[in-house]
Backbone:
């Protein structure tokens, strides 16, 4: 019990210090450990298993929609990075530079990829000649490096894992369709697999990805009221194609420039899971990506038949679910706290009295509800519970977002509702003028903004200048 | 037919120029493409799909044997790399150095990992206190960088993909057992899934991994008679633990140093597949890792019912096999050549006459044998054929190795049999003295050597000095 007490004491309450609560969970649930390289972390087995589950689901979706995986080099020569002007301006200040190979100075320095548009462009220029070579729908699962000043596990690190999709198409229409398709795949994944509601929208001109014509994004609201950009999808037009001289012979035998996209999600999604579903007892994992979906805890395991029955249950469940049995000599209480900390969606308790009654106890992590179920159809009960957990998590997160979404018709309302409280999303009308966007940012202190696809106009005037409004903008304080 | 002719003409015959044959296949089968970074390549979808299949099979074997995946940073601070003396000597001359982050010079330069022993050690020192924390059985799938002077696709590149297993154990016995277990997992994978016979053995003292007490390796013989090291597994003893101050409290409450291993295979395995099974028509892929196991080629596809039937066959087969249908308007002859080039194990031809007779034609890539089979039980026929292909590939490769394995009892015999012909494995007896090993290398020009676990002593005297022999050594010219 000493151990159990210690473990629970160790997590800072989220109301006391949200940032500390977050890093406590990252470390106590054994998701990550720090290293001697600032801003770089070890992703430990339990954290990496979450990422593997994310990868499996998304990779299947990517392949079903016709995408193929490739692998580009991690190095980009300085001259290659410089080929597209906006792009290099956006990334050059934050790349890591390799200057020496062994003891020799390199003729040209190489950056470690912060993103791989230029590498894909160089490759496309080599392999695309005809409309028959289009489209190319490529993706890669790699890590990238951005030399950030302030870092936090999963949310902002100097090296992070991600997937980057890069596609190239004969027409602008096809490329725009792809950009939106991938944003929707991300959004559906977040909502269906991570039980995390997201706003689908477009970034403003001043907030686009370096080199893009338009950037789409999904935004989620965290427990502390801050906004988190969970995925982005960019349409490039033919700007990169022109910079890299990628041309193809069209069906009419003309030389044309193709149109490109790129899109990505990162290990940041793990941070989003923590801050959307977690509580003061630790992590709460959505079933689709939980490394352990149900943990079996034998109660009074020294008594005859208990461990045998627990093993039987595991054998029965393990083909359908990710299930673990903890038969170590720690106390049941310690084990309960341990798997709550680790966010395992369902705990299955089985003791001598349960066995006598041909039943077991299911406890769902997110609401601590206990249910006694018969052992006759345990698989079905578990499947049903996991579906309930997912729905419960989603509805809870959605209610939280709705509770913290406000409408503002004046600058003061933005200030009082979000900038001062640091809390929630604020919808405000906007004329579309960059000067107003800048003024809202500077005067109210909000940072993230997104034009939702399904934003409903609720006023006619721009919140800043009073001229006719063209867009709803969702403002927030961004991670 | 012009296209077809071009395609076949483009591959250099392996007897004319083996090195060119190899790179022709890498590029014409669309496995890789070069980039502007010397020694780094793009792994294209068809090449990457082979790697994904290798990953899937090995990752399952690793997990079944209790290993967990993690992810370490890609950067190693110079001071950390220097902690284990032998290790830094082995790797420092060939690492890439990051000296700047953005526009700022780093306080300490970082190398891009050439291998990750020191990162795992730093982590172990943080997380291991008690015997209860042992063993840790970790693995990661990442890329590493070694600044090689001469490079070749898959065989030797500056950046390459691999998996690196790193484990830590309470006892030396357990660690040695792990080292051997993983070598056997590699060997079984090569023989069973890649149809590539390998010699399992131990490296000599002078040829060990930097920092290891012993290195085990599997060696395969390529078509040109050269040897290729296909995987290695290292036992470190407690040397790293001492250098990194990793200690644990034993069951008897004593502070002890744990014992470590590491083991890895790389994308080099794809090079091994090419050079073990390939021929003058292109790639020949073993079924377990072939991205396409069977390709359906409709013959006279404009005729009524042909494409429909081809689609039916695909629908029937696709749950069990990786199957593709090529219904483009290229000629059947062009398609035959294309999928031979790509090494697809089975071609399924289906035309109007076949449909009439309720049959199709199966052609196996490695021996071009044609079989006419009934459509009634096509799945079974394909499964049977794929098993035959695998066995056929293995026996062919084994026969080739046996044909090119010689025994030498004098230095002159080594010279005439392998160094001069550049061909095959030579078994020679060895007294165990490093001076003799060095002399054999220098005087005969062979490079690779390995002490096979199952080497049969065939003479009493060392091939070099004539003193009593202690080991059989298999010599070769190494890739």
Residues:
């Amino acid at each position: 019990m000493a151990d159990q007490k210690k473990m629970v004491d160790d997590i800072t309450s989220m109301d006391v210090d949200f940032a500390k609560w977050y890093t406590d969970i990252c470390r106590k649930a054994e998701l990550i450990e720090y290293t001697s390289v600032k801003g770089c972390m070890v992703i430990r087995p339990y954290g990496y298993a979450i990422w593997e589950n994310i990868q499996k689901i998304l990779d299947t979706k990517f392949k079903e929609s016709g995408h193929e995986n490739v692998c580009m080099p991690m190095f980009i020569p300085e001259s290659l990075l410089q080929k597209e002007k906006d792009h290099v301006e956006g990334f050059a200040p934050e790349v890591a530079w390799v200057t020496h190979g062994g003891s020799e100075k390199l003729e040209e320095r190489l950056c470690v990829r912060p993103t791989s548009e230029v590498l894909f462009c160089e490759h496309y220029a080599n392999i695309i000649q005809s409309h028959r070579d289009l489209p190319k729908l490529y993706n890669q699962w790699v890590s990238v490096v951005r030399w950030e000043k302030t870092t936090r596990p999963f949310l902002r690190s100097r090296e992070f894992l991600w997937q980057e999709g890069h596609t190239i198409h004969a027409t602008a229409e096809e490329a725009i369709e792809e950009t939106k398709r991938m944003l929707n795949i991300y959004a559906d994944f977040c909502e269906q697999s991570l039980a995390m509601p997201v706003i689908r929208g477009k970034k403003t001109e001043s907030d686009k990805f370096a080199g893009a014509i338009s950037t789409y994004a999904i935004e989620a609201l965290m427990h502390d009221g801050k906004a988190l950009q969970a995925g982005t999808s960019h349409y490039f037009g033919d700007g990169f194609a022109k910079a890299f001289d990628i041309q193809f012979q069209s069906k009419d035998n003309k030389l044309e420039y193709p149109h490109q996209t790129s899109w990505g999600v990162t290990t940041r999604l793990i941070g989003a899971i923590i801050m959307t579903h977690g509580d003061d007892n630790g992590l709460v994992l959505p079933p689709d990506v939980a490394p352990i979906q149900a943990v079996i805890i034998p109660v009074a395991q020294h008594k005859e038949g208990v461990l045998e029955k627990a093993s039987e249950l595991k054998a029965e469940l393990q083909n359908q679910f990710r299930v673990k049995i903890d038969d170590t000599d720690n106390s049941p209480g310690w084990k309960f706290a341990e798997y709550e900390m680790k966010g395992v969606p369902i705990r299955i308790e089985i003791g001598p009295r349960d066995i006598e009654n041909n039943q077991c106890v299911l406890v769902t992590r997110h609401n601590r509800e206990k249910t006694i179920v018969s052992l006759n159809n345990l698989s079905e009960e578990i499947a049903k519970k996991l579906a309930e957990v997912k729905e419960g998590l989603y509805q809870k997160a959605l209610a939280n977002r709705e509770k913290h979404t406000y409408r503002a018709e004046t600058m003061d309302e933005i200030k009082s509702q979000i900038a001062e409280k640091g809390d929630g999303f604020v919808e405000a009308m906007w004329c579309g003028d960059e000067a107003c966007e800048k003024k809202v940012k500077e005067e109210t202190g909000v940072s993230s903004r997104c034009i939702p696809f399904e934003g409903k106009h609720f006023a006619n005037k721009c919140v800043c200048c009073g001229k006719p409004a063209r867009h709803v903008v969702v403002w927030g304080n961004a991670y």
